[in-house]
Amino acid sequence: MVNQQPVAPVTPAAGYIGGKRILSKTVIAKINATDHDGYAEPFVGMGGVFLRRDHQPKTEVINDISGDVANFFRILQRHFPQFMDTLRFQ
């Protein structure tokens, strides 16, 4: 794989209706077999494929039609410690 860093796969925080979790191994094998410098996933859901990949290309873009999903990932990206503190108090 050209210009890709190995990363440790992560289990998604939650399931998602219509998610790709069950297909993730098959999809990731296809992604790994394809030479690419970037990765885009327009319907990320809870990241069933995105988070389970074992290599990270130079550029990654994730999105979802659900504003709640997009907001969830934005919170994880920008406010992770505060998010974890909130979960501890629930």
UniProtKB/TrEMBL annotation:
<dbReference type="GO" id="GO:0009007">
    <property type="term" value="F:site-specific DNA-methyltransferase (adenine-specific) activity"/>
</dbReference>
<keyword id="KW-0949">S-adenosyl-L-methionine</keyword>
<dbReference type="GO" id="GO:0032259">
    <property type="term" value="P:methylation"/>
</dbReference>
<dbReference type="InterPro" id="IPR029063">
    <property type="entry name" value="SAM-dependent_MTases_sf"/>
</dbReference>
<keyword id="KW-0808">Transferase</keyword>
<dbReference type="InterPro" id="IPR012327">
    <property type="entry name" value="MeTrfase_D12"/>
</dbReference>
<keyword id="KW-0489">Methyltransferase</keyword>
<protein>
    <submittedName>
        <fullName>D12 class N6 adenine-specific DNA methyltransferase</fullName>
    </submittedName>
</protein>
<dbReference type="Pfam" id="PF02086">
    <property type="entry name" value="MethyltransfD12"/>
</dbReference>
<dbReference type="GO" id="GO:0009307">
    <property type="term" value="P:DNA restriction-modification system"/>
</dbReference>
